[in-house]
Each structure stands twice: as C-alpha cells, then as structure tokens.
C-alpha cells in the first residue's frame, strides 16, 4: 500500500514537473525572452559562478581543516616521515595552483560575461607568455621529480645488511607469516608442497628451513631495519601498511620485498593516540576476491628486548609438526637410496627464487 | 536565436556569402533519398550522422546502467550495516540475508569501471563526436568508408549485447576489477565472476576493439584525405585535431589490449601459462609455471594509459571549440594547443608503468616512468592556461554548453593536479590503490570527460536534431551535476589520504579505517542525488528531439563548417557544393569585422576591413 502511495506521489510530481516545464516555455515565448540572444539567465549564471567559487571554496577549506586530523593517521617509519613531508609540500604547491586557476576561471567567467555592444579582445597568441607558462611548470615539475626520485631510490635501495628478515605470504583470504630461525636464513618453500598443515609449503629437506617458524602476527623491533619478503600463493595481493608507508604487491611466482624501519612501538602509539586498543594493521590492497576487504594482519612493534624475548620463545615449524618433518626425512632417504646423488635437481629453481 | 530571426541566407549575407542562399525546399528534394526505408535510414545507416546518434544513444543507455551500478555500491559503502532486503526483487540471489554479496559487490565495481571507461567515455564520447563532427567540420560528405563506419557501430552493439547479457548470468559478471588482473581473472576457483562472466567480458572486449579499430582507421583516413579545398592541417578546428590524435592512440594501443585479452583467454581455456605461475588454490597446486602476472599489467596499461587520453582528448577538443565560440574570442595559442595535444599523445605511450610502481617492478624502471609521467603535466598545464587566457577579456555567453566547458576546465584542474602526487613514485607507495586514486581519476578523466560529453551534446544538438535543448533545464542540470561531482569527489581525497583502500566491500574490519563513516555516507548521498539528477538531462534530451524549439542553421554564431549546412541535413551534408575554406576556425571578434565572427569559408577578399597585415596578400 505504501509502495503504491509512493509511486502515486512520484507520478504526480512528474506530472507537476512536466506542467511547470511547459508553462515555463510558454511564458518565455510570450514574454519574448526566448528570442533574445543573451538573456537574464546569462547574468544569473555568471553570478552563480561567483557564488560557487566563494561558497564552494569556503566549504572546501572548512571541510579540509575539519577533517585534517582524521586524514592523517600517525606515522611510524623513518621513510614515512620523509614521504609525508614531501606529500604535504607537494600538496601546498598544488593547492596554490588550484586556488589560482580556479579563481581566475570563475572570476573571468563572471567579469567577462556578455555585455551588449562590447567586443571581445582579439588575442590569438603571445609567444612570450606561452614560453613563460610552459617553462614554469617544467621547472616546478623538475624539482618535484628530483625530490621524488631521490626519496624513491633511497626507499627502494638495498636493505641494510643487519636488517631483520621475515616473510609474509598472501592467500585467499589471510596472511601467513614466517621468520627464519636462529640461522637467519629462510628455508625453501615450494607451492606444490602446500597442504592444510604445511600452509607455507615448507620444503624441510632444506636445512635452512628446519628452524623457521610461523607466527600469527608480525613482530618487529623498534628502531631496527626490517626486510619484508613478500609472496603470494594464489592470486595477486598487496601488502599495505599505512602507518609505515609500506606497500608492495604479493605476486604468485615472483617474490617481492620492501624494507623499512619502525620508529614507535605499539605501546608508544597507544599512548600517543590515546587509544588503548590501537594496533598497527596490514591490509590487502589489491583486489583478490570475496574476502579482500577482510584480509587483515596485526603488526606488533616491540621494544628490542621484548622482541628478542618473543623471538626466543617461538617454536619452529618442524618442531611443531614432527610428522611433516618425518615425511621429508623419509622422502630424502629414498632419494639417496635411489640416486645417491647429492641435492635434488628440482630444488635448484625454487632455491634461486627463495633467495631473491 | 528564435527560428524566425537569422536565416541561413541572412547570416551568410551579413559576412559575405560565397554561395547563393539556398531555400530549404530545394535541398530537401536534393538530398533525401526517396527510396530509403526505415531500416536503411535509421538502423543500418551508413550516414555518419545517424551512426553518431546511434553511438550517443547507446552511450546514454550504458551511462544509466553504469550509474545505477555505482549507486548500488555506494549504498553498501555509505551504510555498511544496513539491510538491503528491498533490493531483493531486482538483485535476487545477490542479496544474501539482506546483505549484498561481497563478490557481487566486486562485480558491480568491475562493471561500473568497464562500462564507464569503454562503453560510455570511449564509444559514447569519441564514437559520437568523431563520427558526427569529422566530416562536417572538415567539409566532407561522409566518412571515407561509410560501410566500415556502420560495421564499427554494429560491432560495438554486439559487444554491448554480450556485456549486457553477462550482467544476468548465474555466476555473475566479471568481478576482478576493470583492469582484470590475472590470476584472479583467470581462475574461476578464485572468484565466481571469473567463470562465464569473465569469458563474456573478454569476448565483448574483443568485439569492442574491432569496433574501435574500424572506427579509428576511418577517422584517420577521413581527416587525412577528405578535407575540403583549403582546409590545411593548420586550419583544422581543435576538435578535429583531438579526434584525429585520439584515433591514432586507439589504433596503436587497442591491439595491445587485444593481445593481452587473447593470451588471457589462452591461459583460461587452453592451459597455457603466460600470466600464471606457482599457484595453489582451492586445495590444489596448479601445473602452471613460468608465467608472470606483471606481464599482463604491462600489456594492459600499454593500452590502459593511452586509454585515459582517448577518453579525455575529444573532450579537450570540444571544450576548446566551445570556449572560443562562447567567449567570442579566438582560442588562445592555437598552435600551442595542437602542440600540447601532440605532446600528450606521444607521452601517453611511455608512462604506462606509473600504474605499477609497487608491483615489484624494478625500482629503476619506476624512476624512469616517474620522470616521464611528470613531464606530461607540462602540456596539460599549457592547455589549462590557454583555456583561461581564452576567457580573459572575452564577451562570454554562458550557454549550457559553455557552463559545462567551464566545468570541464575546473574539474580537469582539480583532478589533474593530484596526478602530480600519484606520478611521484615515492608518494605513490602510500597512495596506490587508495581512494585518493579513485578521486583523482574520477575527476580528471571520469567527470571531466562526462562534462565534455555534455558540453558537446548541448552545443551540437541543434545540428544533430535540428532543434534546441531547453536551456533552463540545462542550467539546472549543470549546477546540480557540477556541485554534485565536487561533493562526491573532494571528500574522497580525504578518505584516500587516510589510506582507505579501494574495492573494499566494507572498512569496518580495520581500526585504521574506522573513521569517516559519516563522510562516506555523505559521499553516497551526493553521488546518488547527482545520479538521479541526470534524468533531467535524459528528459531534456529526448523531449527536445521531438518537441524542442526549432534550431537555426548557426544558432551559436560559430565559424566552423558544420554550421553552414542546412537545418534539415540529409546524407551528404551540403545540398550544393562543399564550401572551400580560407581561414582558421577562430576568427571571433576580429577588429574591423562587421560581425563578431567570420566563418571559415569566407575569403579574405570579402573581409578587407578586418584583414591583418599578413592576410592582405591572400585577399
């Protein structure tokens, strides 16, 4: 019944609208305004341009200031502070250009609105002006490119030798994390070995992998460079850690990496934001299917001492899954018996990949 | 502007006619082919003007679909907790327990992008206006090949049918994003839209590419070969330069998309591994090895980036033309405008990998592409300054088309500037795939190109249908849309700076993205209202086709050749001889001239009072 009522009202509104429209046309014909080349509406639109500029500009400024804090989540990495400075410097330059051009656009539209008997100024070109306003953007862009390039090469340059290494693997729809154990070497993984227990595809015939451990969340120490190795085992994902200004795709078949240095522990950040539940979060930022929007992983930044303690307390994957380890031992024994050749040839290709 | 005031003969006489005024009756008889039946005239027509209208109306149809899809996902984003039970009658099983199915949400986003970029802003925009204006403005009776032109539309139609059908199949339409990155788009196990829906997407796109190539070859050939006497390349209206370069871009880049689509079809159906490697999905390790998903991205963006210029350049051309006409001033820096179009066209081919800074591509490559990308800001800036200079000291008539052109410049600036942030690889680390990107490209290529499209429709409607669109409704449409677009996309930057990822069904799972719930609601309201407002335009458009005020031959007192044709135009465009061209297209408000415009076909000998010194020799 209500639906019917709403429909009826809509139809009536349309009829009213149609009638008003006809009426408007008829009156404009009657009053002769439809034959005038440039009528009152020109002036109205010109005034609207100015109103739009002033009211719109004010609303923009107000909403920007109002939302400024919300749009600036706290930053917690060394390069994050640098890119943040560059971002807002760039935005200020853009803001100036934006304001200038928009003001000119609407002021000109108002100021030079049609006037009877006036003639526009015949001004087809002026080489000097054109050279100037080609050169100015070119110079400004050159500056921005240079600053961006310097920062980009620093961020994407090789990670420090002493960086802590860990690996995240994206899958539909969560993240897996593994750390090299005491030997600081990540063992081989092979997607063909993946199953419900061995989600990472550990190849435990590789000695480097024996002490590797998996973790339900990322732990990293404050103030120490961290090298994040990234892979995916199904479709594209992207590791996105907004607080650290880190983003890199997870690509099946092509391991990627990103290194950064966290500057604030989770606890410090909780104190700073006044939010006792604050957590650094890792989000997936490349469309990957149904659960894309819920692919979250927590990151904990510890004090270095806490980190060491946490690291020491972890049990390796092989220790937790003795049957997986046993099955690998069995396999390798068989191999040795059969071929008595040293390493399996098949392992060479994944080895090259795993070592990046 | 009323039907009875300046007739063809009077206008021509006023500035010196090159040919005797022709009465309407004469050319009606002269030009209409009596034997043409309805099918030949309106359906399988080879007349470029009819084909243009076919593209336009199909484009409007697609825009309504694309807009509706966006309203649906904006409902989800604005009110993630709300139940959408009331949509059940329309969406059926895609509403599960009152909630939108997350895969269907991705399908909505994917189809919205595909439809808007390809079907509306490529086919609907350049398909319409390249077809309509190229022969009329260069002085040709039709395209070089009318038949190929007809095929171009019908391939587009076929492609539309396939894409439209895919919206209704059981597993849903393609859902891997409009960029259809594999492996997601290659594996039905990964998302149900990658089954039949993706196959149809690829088939549809292959047909679409055929349509684009048939059209493009035609536009290029026509511009090169069929210009009327005197119409040198340096006398072409900027619209034609824009359409010409757009066609060149399309011709060079669409085949690359075709190859990407073809390889993807092979990976999907024939077990090859171009883009697939080391995949374990749905409990099984696939046998594919050695492929690279990144290769697909290179191929895709080799089209994808020129594509955004394919979308925007026709709008730039039309806006240049409309700004000059309504400011009653020559476009400022005609040659610089052509030069910047050429610069943009060239650069658009060598910036594609700026979409891929954080894909794991070699960082050195990132540096190169950052450099090339930021260079493209220079020709864009030149264009903007020249548009502003065109308004300066003009005598501006704020027609609806003019308002939309001013709106275009405003949106192009607003969206273009943030490209400078995104083109900077160091800043893109944070901004990549966030709402900052969404805001950027919706302003600079989405809304701007739409504004160009509307400007074009309002401006050339009298030539298309012989009637005028209602100006008052036009003003309402403009202000509503213009304000609406800013209300939608400015706040989106805030959301993006805060790092909100795009293509998220909901952000509620993350603490980091817990703010801005109100702002997202606001954006949704603005988007839906602005979308509903478009029905004003649709009403105005269809109403005016049949009941609009009758147009005169040259209602805007414009200089280009299309306005020398009669109101009732038949196939062949000019009833008599095609006028020859003597001057550039922007002789507005020339000092010493009787009127404030001198059409292109008026020889210098008839305008001695206004000729500039170097023009004296040409008298």
Structure description:
The complex is a heterodimer of chains A (356) and B (619). Chain A is α+β, with helices and mostly antiparallel strands and 356 residues long. Chain A has two domains: 101 residues, no CATH class; 191 residues, Cupredoxins -  blue copper proteins (Immunoglobulin-like, Sandwich). Chain A is 47% helix and 15% strand. In chain A, the strands form two sheets. In chain A, strands 3-2-1-5-8 form a five-stranded mixed beta sheet, with no helix packed on it. In chain A, α2 runs antiparallel to α3 and α3 runs antiparallel to α4. Chain A is elongated. With 619 residues, chain B is mainly α. Chain B has one domain: Cytochrome C Oxidase, Chain A (Up-down Bundle), CATH 1.20.210.10. Chain B has 18 helices and four strands. In chain B, β3 and β4 form a beta hairpin. In chain B, α6 packs across α16. The longest helix of chain B has 37 residues. In chain B, 64% of the residues are buried. At the A-B interface, α1, α2, α3, α4 and β7 of A face α6, β3, α10, α11 and α12 of B.
């Amino acid at each position: 019944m209500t639906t019917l009522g709403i429909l009826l009202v809509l139809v009536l509104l349309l009829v009213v609208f149609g009638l008003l429209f006809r009426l408007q046309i008829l009156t404009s014909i009657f009053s002769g305004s439809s034959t005038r080349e440039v009528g009152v509406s020109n002036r109205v639109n010109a005034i609207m341009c100015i109103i739009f500029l002033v009211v719109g500009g004010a609303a923009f400024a107000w909403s920007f200031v109002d939302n400024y804090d919300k749009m600036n989540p706290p930053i917690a990495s060394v390069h994050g502070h640098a890119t943040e400075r560059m971002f807002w410097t760039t935005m200020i330059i853009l803001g100036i250009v934006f304001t200038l051009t928009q003001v000119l656009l609407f002021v000109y539209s108002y100021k030079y609105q049609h006037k009877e008997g006036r003639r526009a100024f015949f001004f087809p070109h002026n080489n000097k002006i054109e050279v100037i306003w080609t050169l100015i953007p070119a110079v400004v862009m050159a500056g921005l490119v240079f600053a961006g390039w310097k920062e980009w090469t620093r961020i994407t340059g090789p990670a420090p030798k002493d960086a802590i290494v860990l690996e995240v693997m994206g899958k539909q729809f969560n993240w897996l994390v593994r750390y090299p154990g005491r030997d600081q070497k990540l063992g081989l993984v092979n997607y063909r070995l993946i199953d419900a227990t061995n989600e990472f595809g550990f190849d435990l015939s590789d000695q480097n992998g024996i002490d590797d451990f998996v973790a339900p969340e990322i732990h990293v120490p404050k103030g120490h460079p961290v090298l994040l190795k990234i892979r995916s085992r199904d479709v594209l994902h992207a590791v996105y850690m907004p607080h650290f200004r880190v983003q890199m795709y997870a690509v099946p078949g092509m391991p990627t990496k990103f290194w950064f240095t966290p500057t604030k522990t989770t606890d410090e950040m909780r104190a700073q934001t006044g939010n006792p539940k604050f957590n650094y979060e890792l989000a997936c930022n490349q469309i990957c299917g149904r659960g894309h929007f819920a692919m979250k992983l927590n990151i904990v930044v510890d004090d270095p001492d806490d980190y060491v303690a946490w690291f020491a307390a972890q049990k390796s994957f092989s220790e937790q899954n003795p049957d997986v380890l046993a099955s690998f031992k069995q396999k390798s024994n068989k191999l040795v018996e059969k071929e008595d050749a040293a390493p399996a040839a098949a392992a060479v290709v994944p080895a090259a990949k795993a070592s990046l | 502007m009323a039907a009875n005031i300046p007739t063809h003969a009077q206008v021509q006489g006023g500035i010196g006619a090159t040919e005797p005024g022709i009465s309407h009756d004469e050319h009606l008889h002269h030009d209409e082919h009596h034997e043409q039946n309805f099918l030949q005239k309106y359906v399988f027509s080879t007349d470029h003007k009819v084909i243009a209208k076919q593209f336009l109306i199909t484009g409007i149809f697609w825009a309504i679909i694309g807009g509706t899809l966006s309203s649906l996902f904006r409902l989800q984003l604005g009110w993630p907790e709300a139940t959408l039970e009331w949509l059940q009658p329309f969406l059926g099983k895609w509403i599960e327990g009152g909630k939108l199915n997350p895969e269907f949400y991705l399908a909505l986003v994917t189809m919205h992008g595909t439809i808007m970029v390809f079907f509306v802003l490529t086919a609907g925009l350049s398909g319409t206006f390249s077809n309509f204006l190229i022969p009329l403005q260069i002085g040709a009776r039709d395209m070089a090949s009318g038949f190929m032109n007809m095929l171009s539309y019908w391939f587009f139609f076929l492609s539309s049918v396939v894409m439209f059908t895919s919206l209704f199949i059981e597993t849903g339409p393609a859902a891997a994003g409009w960029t259809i990155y594999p492996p997601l788009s290659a594996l039905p196990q990964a998302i149900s839209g990658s089954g039949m829906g993706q196959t149809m997407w690829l088939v549809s796109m292959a047909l679409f590419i055929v349509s684009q190539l048939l059209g493009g070859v035609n536009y290029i050939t026509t511009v090169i070969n069929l210009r009327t006497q005197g119409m040198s390349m340096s006398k072409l209206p900027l619209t034609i330069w824009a359409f010409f370069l757009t066609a060149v871009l399309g011709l060079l880049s669409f085949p690359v998309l075709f190859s990407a689509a073809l390889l993807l079809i092979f990976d999907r159906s024939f077990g090859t591994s171009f883009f697939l490697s080391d995949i374990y999905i749905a409990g099984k390790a696939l046998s594919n090895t050695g492929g690279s998903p990144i290769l697909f991205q290179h191929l895709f963006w080799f089209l994808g980036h020129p594509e955004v210029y394919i979308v925007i350049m026709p709008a730039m051309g039309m806006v240049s033309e409309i700004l000059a006409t309504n400011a009653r001033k020559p476009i400022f820096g005609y040659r610089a405008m052509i030069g910047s179009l050429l610069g943009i066209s060239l650069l658009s081919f060598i910036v594609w990998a700026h979409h891929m800074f954080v894909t794991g591509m070699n960082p050195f490559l990132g540096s190169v592409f950052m450099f090339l990308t930021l260079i493209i800001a220079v020709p864009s800036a030149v264009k903007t300054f020249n548009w502003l200079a065109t308004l300066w000291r003009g005598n501006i008539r704020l027609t609806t088309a003019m308002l939309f052109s001013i709106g275009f410049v405003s949106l192009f600036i607003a969206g273009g500037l943030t490209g400078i942030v995104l083109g900077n690889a160091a800043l893109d680390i944070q901004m990549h795939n966030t709402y900052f990107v969404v805001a950027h490209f919706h302003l600079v290529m989405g809304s701007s190109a739409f504004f160009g499209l509307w400007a074009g429709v309002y401006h050339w409607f009298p030539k298309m249908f012989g009637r005028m669109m209602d100006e008052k409704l036009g003003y309402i449409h403009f202000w509503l849309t213009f304000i609406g677009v800013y209300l939608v996309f400015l706040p989106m930057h805030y959301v993006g700076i805060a790092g909100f990822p795009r293509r998220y069904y909901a952000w509620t799972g993350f603490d980091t993205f817990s703010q801005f719930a109100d702002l997202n609601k606001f954006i949704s309201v603005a988007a839906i209202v602005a979308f509903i407002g478009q029905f004003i335009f649709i009403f105005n458009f269809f109403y005016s086709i049949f009941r609009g005020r009758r147009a005169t031959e040259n209602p805007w007192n414009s200089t280009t050749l299309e306005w020398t044709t009669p109101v009732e135009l038949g196939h062949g465009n000019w009833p008599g001889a095609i006028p020859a061209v003597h001057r550039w297209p922007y002789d507005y408000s020339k000092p010493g001239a009787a009127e404030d415009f001198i059409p292109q076909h008026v020889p210098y000998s008839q305008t001695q009072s206004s000729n500039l010194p170097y023009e004296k020799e040409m008298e």
